[in-house]
Amino acid sequence: MQQPLAYRMRPTKLEEIVGQQDLVGPGKIIDRMVRAKMLSSMILYGPPGTGKTSIASAIAGSTKYAFRVLNAATDTKKDLQVVSEEAKMSGTVVLLLDEIHRLDKTKQDFLLPLLESGSIILIGATTENPYININPAIRSRTQIFEVHPLTPADIKKALDRALNDKNKGLGDYPAVISEEALNFLATATNGDLRSSLNALELAVKSTPKNDQGNINVTQEIVEECLQRKALNSDKNGDAHYDVISAFQKSIRGSDTDAALHYVGRLIESGDLVSIMRRLLVIAYEDIGLANPGACQRTVAAVDAARQLGLPEARIPLANAIIELCLSPKSNSAMAAIDESLSDIRSGNYGDVPLHLKDAHYQGAKKLGRGVTYKYPHDFPNDWVKQQYLPDKIKNAQYYHPKENGRIESAFKSQYTKLRKSAGHQ
């Protein structure tokens, strides 16, 4: 039985990887590891189809190490022992361990000494946040890298390669794919290259040749193979992102009906991932401190939508969207952190005041660290006048509160009172 196109097109060297150039591009961290032959175990986390397995495969191919793939949830300790024995006999083995967040203690205890010795280079793959879902003992022995959804340009590059590759791809098929169909394949899977490649293979192999002997793959055929409608696609592939942009701007502008219209278009195209991610951004960027409770409820709605999946996911999402539209708005928190980051990136910061420096180690007091620090809980109302910012920027103000809701109005009152008590104007 022939393996799926996405499997056959898996890269065998770093140069073949599309996307993730911040990790595998020339001079970047994984490229440096491979060139220096100083591989360390790592965890790759990100959405499905974004290249985690491809990176592991390319690392193994570029270093000529044996490459093995196991699943932490379904493969046993005995399977790990087989890989361990192979490493003892033939040298280092690169092991891709999928769903590493589901690694149990027995398998973990078996793996740890192998990671310490370097006989196995572990590349863990997960869609879950490793800082929350992976055991600290594994985390401490690995580097953690985040992989991101591929751009439409990345996916088109991979699709073109698959269409022209006569050895592993579809180069022996007389396929002619329309630009609209290619753009739709590149945008409709939300950065999931695996889904795009497998849909392309189904489209090519299930379409009969025409009278000229060609296999014409149209947008309608791709829609059928992906089971998604091209409501948000145009000849340039931009309209999908235009709808996402209009969705956020409608909520920011408090137009409930427009927001529901645009999210309806995203739902019809099956793009649940973009809806959930955008809603989380909107909640904290556009509503923020004007209604923190709405932000929390949006997180709960997104979590419910993720567990339910479409079509039921539309219900908690609609609840969140309507509340965000009708909520007071404030971007003061985002503006505050961006202003702070601007100062730091321009070099406008100073040394941490001596009384705030860590004083928990022997000899710290001799260096004057923490000696004059005032513990706020020892004072009335748990507050005492004390400088916290470095001398260079001691009067800096980043947060400029708004009064667009009852909650942030209260924050403004407290913030203003505290700044005045601290001696700021």
Automatic annotation (TrEMBL):
Residues 38-150 form the AAA+ ATPase domain. Pfam families: AAA, AAA_assoc_2, MgsA_C. Keywords: ATP-binding, Nucleotide-binding. CDD domains: AAA, HLD_clamp_RarA. The keyword Metal-binding does not apply. One of its GO terms (biological process) is DNA-templated DNA replication. GO terms for molecular function: ATP binding; ATP hydrolysis activity; DNA binding; enzyme activator activity; single-stranded DNA helicase activity. Signal peptide: none annotated. The keyword Nucleotide-binding applies. Belongs to the AAA ATPase family. RarA/MGS1/WRNIP1 subfamily. This is Replication-associated recombination protein A. It comes from Lentilactobacillus parakefiri. The lineage of its organism: Bacteria, Bacillati, Bacillota, Bacilli, Lactobacillales.
